[in-house]
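Input structure tokens:
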């Protein structure tokens, strides 16, 4: 990205509040960002070669949409917790191993995508965020879904392609969860207890690629209750 192009992007961003410097193979953050006024509502730095996000980002307190996907990040900075207006956080396709607890301050979050990283623990700090609707944690290294999941407010949770061998029964208490994707993990069929199948609001449950077959799943106590919810939703769609 040439200097003139960078300058033009920043000039436009002063007027629009949208700064997009994606797919440029940048390794270092443009120095203009350090002195840029606090007007940004959207910042897209995806598709570069950044290994860290500078702490300077904390001053952009108006950001609602942040895209840091497809970089070389190994962590997210604690200062993201200062971006209290943020609604969408996209950080997929990095090498992130941990999620900072400060993300629990972001009460306006609606969508978080952390897929294709190296996260090995379920990010419980996201549980209880009342506006969070979609959480994508697919293609990570998570091994367990803990009891704190009962406070998760999402309608859709994607846990496909992790290493999950433990699923807390408390997921049945998740108040709004309708779609649970948990394909290609390490779950036994007994992980799906009668309480989960009978008492949860889950009506779209994807379980293929675990340590059981479809017949074993269909034989579970509570499977018919789950299928009633599944069928009812399908009838509303058509």
């Amino acid at each position: 990205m040439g200097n003139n192009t960078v300058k033009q992007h920043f000039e436009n961003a002063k007027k629009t509040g949208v700064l997009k410097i994606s797919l440029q193979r940048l390794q270092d953050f443009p120095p203009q960002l350090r002195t840029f006024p606090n007007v940004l509502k959207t910042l897209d730095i995806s598709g570069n070669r950044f290994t860290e996000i500078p702490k300077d980002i904390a001053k952009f307190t108006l950001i609602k949409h942040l895209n840091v996907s497809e970089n070389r990040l190994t962590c997210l900075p604690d200062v993201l917790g200062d971006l209290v207006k943020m609604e969408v956080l996209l950080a997929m396709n990095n090498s992130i191993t941990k999620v900072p607890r400060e993300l629990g301050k972001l009460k306006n979050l609606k969508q978080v995508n952390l897929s294709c990283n190296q996260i090995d623990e379920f990010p419980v700090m996201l549980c209880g965020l009342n506006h969070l609707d979609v959480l994508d944690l697919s293609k990570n290294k998570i091994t367990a879904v803990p009891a704190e999941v009962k406070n998760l407010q999402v309608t859709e949770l994607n846990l496909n392609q992790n290493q999950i061998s433990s699923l807390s029964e408390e997921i049945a208490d998740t108040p709004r969860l309708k779609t649970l994707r948990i394909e290609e993990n390490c779950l036994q069929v007994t992980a799906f207890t009668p309480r989960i199948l009978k008492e949860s609001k889950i009506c779209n449950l994807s379980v293929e690629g675990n340590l059981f077959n479809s017949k074993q799943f269909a034989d579970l106590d509570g499977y018919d209750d789950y299928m009633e919810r599944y069928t009812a939703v399908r009838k509303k769609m058509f």
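The longest helix spans residues 223-237. The chain has one domain: 1-236.
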